[in-house]
């Protein structure tokens, strides 16, 4: 048998359609229900569904009043506050195309994004670095829009462009991933296939407002189901999360594996009587971490696999758990295969994890890069670039990345991007970057370089700080006489790891 999971195409997305209208569909039926609580140890700022929708549609009206027109692209340079999702959904409600970006990006990185996206305007919090643009809408103006009379939702073709997000490409150049309004429709397959999420749930996501993982799993998906989202306010420490989960009666917890690891460092057992289970994504969940969490809380952890180009489509769930050594199973409605050079491989054989081109969660394209878009396709299948194996019961096991992409705290980072940023540092002749496991379940980015003499760690770190977002910066710099290369002189990036075995802790 072949490594294919295909139960036919998923239910078609309705038309006309608007992503924001879909997310806020419950506002009319339950206007007074709490949609969001921004929580801290001392207090909680509550947003009802009615208040949330009014702010989103008021923002939509304000953006249109600025002279922006449907189809115009916006860059969000906003911080870890409620302003971020309100601006994001407000733009989409108006038919505009937002591009959420990490607040950690430097001016140089933002300028590069401007070149690719060509935004009509930038929404800017003065606390966040940005690049010059002829049309910048300041945060105070954006906030004042919430009180405006609501704009109608811009309904239309579900396949039209809705938003753009950035991912590090294998070429080393960050790629703009263009998604359609229908992408939110695909996430319905995650509700049972991963979350076990119902309207009665209170889902606490540990991430920042301006992280796409939080935006989807922590906010839009609970709102789509009519549930309550709980987000810690900026500055809340990871050590405070167990108490917040308890005091705010969270029923589901979502975080990157690194957050779970830090919470478990104390070695104590947590009393979380309302918690049903935890969710994790962003990097492979280890069996050790899953067992430790269950031991500390009495609840399970359920993992999901996806990427910037497609919403999570392989997962474990409360209804269909899998052993911790497996990623999970394809969600009902998904079409997934393990491909070799000649198409789907036999069950039990290694290949590239692929998702069908008709998946509603799959991107439209890499903006401005048609050749790279086409290169990711193999017939009707989109190639993830990750290796896997499918078993007879359709469990999928992850075998690693087919390329050298790194994983830094749940962020996918291209080593080529980091290398390009550091190659111009005075005193550096050659450089190679990879991620290193410094202890079980913990990986860091490490840079290996050659030059006349070793440079100080501070010199290299300061240079990186002006050119790379914090999560892209190496945590270790290793001087070598020569970098490992193959017969053709090409850098053997994976061989770099051999130079640090037992050295980094």
Would you write up a description of this structure?
The structure is a single chain. The protein has 505 residues and is an alpha/beta fold. It is built from 14 helices and 28 strands. It has a 9-stranded mixed sheet, sandwiched between helices. Strands 1, 17, 18, 19, 21, 22 and 23 form a 7-stranded antiparallel sheet that branches. A 4-stranded parallel sheet has the order 5-4-6-7. Helix 2 (49-65) packs across helix 3. It is globular.
List keywords for this structure.
single chain, about 500 residues, alpha/beta, GMP Synthetase, Chain A, domain 3, 14 helices, 28 strands
* Tally of contiguous helical segments: 14
Largest pleated sheet: 9 strands, mixed
Number of strands: 28
Q: Report the β-strand fraction as a percent range.
A: 25-35%
Per CATH, the superfamily of the domain at 406-499 is ANL, C-terminal domain
Q: In CATH terms, what is the fold-level topology of the domain at 406-499?
A: GMP Synthetase, Chain A, domain 3
Give me the secondary-structure topology.
Layout: E1 4-6, H1 19-23, E2 34-39, E3 44-48, H2 49-65, E4 73-77, H3 83-93, E5 97-100, H4 107-117, E6 121-124, E7 136-138, H5 139-144, E8 161-168, E9 174-180, H6 183-186, H7 188-195, E10 202-205, H8 212-225, E11 228-232, H9 241-247, E12 252-255, H10 257-263, E13 277-280, H11 287-297, E14 300-307, E15 310-315, E16 329-330, E17 335-340, E18 343-344, E19 351-356, E20 365-366, H12 370-375, E21 377-378, E22 381-390, E23 396-401, E24 406-408, E25 411-413, H13 415-422, E26 430-439, E27 442-450, H14 457-465, E28 476-479
Parallel strand pairs: 2-11, 4-5, 4-6, 6-7, 10-11, 10-12, 12-13, 13-14, 27-28
Antiparallel strand pairs: 1-17, 2-3, 8-9, 9-20, 14-15, 15-16, 17-18, 17-19, 19-22, 21-22, 22-23, 24-25, 26-27
Helix pairs in contact: 2-3
């Amino acid at each position: 048998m072949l490594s294919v999971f295909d139960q036919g195409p998923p239910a078609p997305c309705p038309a006309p359609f608007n992503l924001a209208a879909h997310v806020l569909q419950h506002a009319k039926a339950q206007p007074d229900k709490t949609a969001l609580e921004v929580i801290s140890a001392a207090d909680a700022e509550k947003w009802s569904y009615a208040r949330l929708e009014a702010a989103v549609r008021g923002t939509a009206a304000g953006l249109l009043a600025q002279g922006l027109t449907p189809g115009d692209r916006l860059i969000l340079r906003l911080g870890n506050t409620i302003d971020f999702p309100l601006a994001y959904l407000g733009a989409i409600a108006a038919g505009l195309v937002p591009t959420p970006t990490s607040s950690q990006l430097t001016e140089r990185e933002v300028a590069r994004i401007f070149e690719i996206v060509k935004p009509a305007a930038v929404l800017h919090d003065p606390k966040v670095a940005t690049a010059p643009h002829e049309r910048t809408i300041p945060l105070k103006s954006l906030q004042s829009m919430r009180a405006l009379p609501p704009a109608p939702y811009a309904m239309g073709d579900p396949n039209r462009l809705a938003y753009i997000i950035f991912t590090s490409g294998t070429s080393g150049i960050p790629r703009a991933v263009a998604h359609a309004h229908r992408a939110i429709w695909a996430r319905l397959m995650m509700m049972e296939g991963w979350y076990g999420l119902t309207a009665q749930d209170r889902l606490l996501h540990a991430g920042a407002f301006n992280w796409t993982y939080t935006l989807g799993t922590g906010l839009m998906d609970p709102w789509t189901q009519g549930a309550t989202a709980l987000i810690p306010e900026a500055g809340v420490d990871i050590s405070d999360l167990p108490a917040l989960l308890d005091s705010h009666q969270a029923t589901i917890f979502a975080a990157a594996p690194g957050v779970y690891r830090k919470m478990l460092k104390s070695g104590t057992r947590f009393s979380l009587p309302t918690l049903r289970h935890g969710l994790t994504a962003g990097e492979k969940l280890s069996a050790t971490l899953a067992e430790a969490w269950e031991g500390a809380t009495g609840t399970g952890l359920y993992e999901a696999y996806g990427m910037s180009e497609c919403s999570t489509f392989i997962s474990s769930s409360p209804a269909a758990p899998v052993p911790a050594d497996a990623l999970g199973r394809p969600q009902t409605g998904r079409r997934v295969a393990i491909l070799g050079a000649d198409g789907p491989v036999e069950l039990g054989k290694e290949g590239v994890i692929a998702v069908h081109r008709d998946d509603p969660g799959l991107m439209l394209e890499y903006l401005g890069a048609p050749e790279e878009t086409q290169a990711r396709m193999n017939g009707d299948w989109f190639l993830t670039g990750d290796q896997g194996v499918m078993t007879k019961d359709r469990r999928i096991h992850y075998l690693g990345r087919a390329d050298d992409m790194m994983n830094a705290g749940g962020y996918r980072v291209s080593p080529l991007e980091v290398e390009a940023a550091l190659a111009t540092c005075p005193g550096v002749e050659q450089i190679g970057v990879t991620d290193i496991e410094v202890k079980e379940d913990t990986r860091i980015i490490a840079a290996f370089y050659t030059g006349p003499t070793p440079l100080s760690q501070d010199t290299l770190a300061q240079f990186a700080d002006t050119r790379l977002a914090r999560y892209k910066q190496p945590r270790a710099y290793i001087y070598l006489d020569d970098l490992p290369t193959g017969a053709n002189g090409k850098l053997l990036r994976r061989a770099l790891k051999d130079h640090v075995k037992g050295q980094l802790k």
